[in-house]
Amino acid sequence: MAGTETKKQTKIVEGTFGGHYKVSAKTVQFENLIKYGVSKDKAIIIHHADEVEAMLRLMRVVVVPEGEVTDSEIELIRSHLETVLAPGITAEQKDGFIDYFRNLDTTNLKLKECCQLFKTRSRPNKMSQFIDILYQLAYFHGIDQKMQIVFQDVGQFLNIRATEMRQAAFAARKMVESDEPDSSGEVDGEN
């Protein structure tokens, strides 16, 4: 019986993340990767890739649950990835993350499950940074009342205080508004 259970809990982490490694499907903990014979450097990248995948999945479900991802949204994601990716992630692997975000099929994804997955795979000190970029992405995409309710749910599922959510929303709105052209066609700060 134990062998059957192990087979059911095994998946392959492949391609974008630098090779094929069998890891526990429950979690991709750094220590578990080492047990499976993955080198320490590769284990850091795979563990980090698992966290980034969960982050991108949640971003996509919240902000672009259906339809096309715009070029400006992709550029914002690319910029954010530059700040959060571990050293050692190649440009090809970064492009793999972008392709994952762009092509993710969201039809069967549930918000609560995506939040729980992100919460288990992410470090607590990354939550506020994630909420900041999530709100920026939402304001670039166009935030409406329905999406504001979704953000309230995200805050509850991730155990983030309402005041912190409001502060992130305010900062993101100000940032996006400052990047919009004024009536003369110039962007704030440009002459």
Description:
It is a single chain. The protein has helices spanning 2-8, 30-35, 40-63, 71-84, 91-103, 111-121, 127-141, 145-157, 162-179, and strands at 10-13, 21-24. It is mostly helical and 191 residues long. Strands 1-2 form a two-stranded antiparallel sheet. The radius of gyration is 18 Å and the shape is globular.
Give keywords.
191 residues; 4% strand; disordered N terminus; TerB-like; globular; single chain; mainly alpha; two-stranded antiparallel ribbon
- CATH-level-2 architecture: Orthogonal Bundle
Radius of gyration, in angstroms, nearest whole number: 18 Å
Portion of residues in beta strands equals under 5%
Within the largest sheet, what's the order of strands?
A: 1-2
Mean pLDDT value: 73
Largest sheet: 2 strands, antiparallel
According to DSSP, the number of beta strands is: 2
* CATH fold-level name: TerB-like
Order of helices and strands: HEEHHHHHHHH
Helix-and-strand structural type:
mainly alpha
Count of all domains: 1
Give the proportion of residues in helices.
Answer: 55-70%
Question: Number of helical runs?
Answer: 9
Brief account:
With 191 residues, this protein is mostly helical. It contains nine helices and two strands.
